[in-house]
Design a protein that fits this description.
The model has no long low-confidence stretch (mean pLDDT 91). It is built from 2 helices and 9 strands; from the N terminus they run βββββββαβαβ. A hairpin with a 6-residue loop joins β3 and β4. It has one domain. It is globular, with a radius of gyration of 13 Å. A 9-stranded mixed sheet has the order 5-4-3-2-1-8-7-6-9, with helices on one face. By secondary structure, the protein is mainly β. It is 14% helix and 42% strand.
Length: 122
C-alpha cells in the first residue's frame, strides 16, 4: 500500500511512565494511518493501521530512506490487521523532522533486528 503521509514521531520521556516512542503516518487523501509504537520497558512493538486495528509483534521489517519508510509485515500478522503486507510511506520534504523520526525508529527497534536506516540526511 502506498501512502503519501504526514509523519509525526516522538521518543519516550524516561521521566514519564506513560511515555513511549512512536511514529504516526497519516494519508489524508486515503484517510489511512499507520503507526508503530513501543514503551521503553516493553519487548513488543505495536502496529496500528486504519482506525485502531492493532497487533503487537516481536519484530517487523522497517527500512528508512531519505524519501520513504518501507514497512513489511508477515502475512499472518497482516491478516490480523487489514491484509496489507507492505506499506511504502512517501515522506514529503519539510513536513517531518528527520532527526526525531530517526531517533524514534531507533528507540522502537532497540534490541530488534528489523530496522534499517539507508538515509543520508538527518
Amino acid at each position: 500500500m502506498e501512502l503519501h503521509a504526514t509523519v509525526g514521531a516522538a521518543t519516550s520521556d524516561l521521566d514519564d511512565d506513560e511515555s513511549f516512542a512512536n511514529i504516526y503516518c497519516h494519508d489524508a487523501e486515503q484517510d489511512y494511518c499507520l503507526a508503530l509504537s513501543r514503551f521503553p520497558d516493553d519487548t513488543l512493538i505495536e502496529v496500528m493501521v486504519r482506525d485502531q486495528l492493532n497487533v503487537r509483534v516481536k519484530d517487523l521489517s522497517v527500512r528508512l530512506t531519505d524519501d520513504t519508510i518501507d514497512v513489511e509485515i508477515e502475512p499472518g500478522i497482516a491478516a490480523r490487521l487489514d491484509g496489507h503486507t507492505r506499506y511504502v510511506i512517501h515522506l514529503a520534504p519539510g513536513q517531518y523532522d528527520p532527526l526525531t523520526l530517526r531517533a524514534a525508529l531507533k528507540e522502537i527497534f532497540v534490541g530488534k533486528n528489523g530496522y534499517r536506516d539507508d538515509g543520508t540526511r538527518g
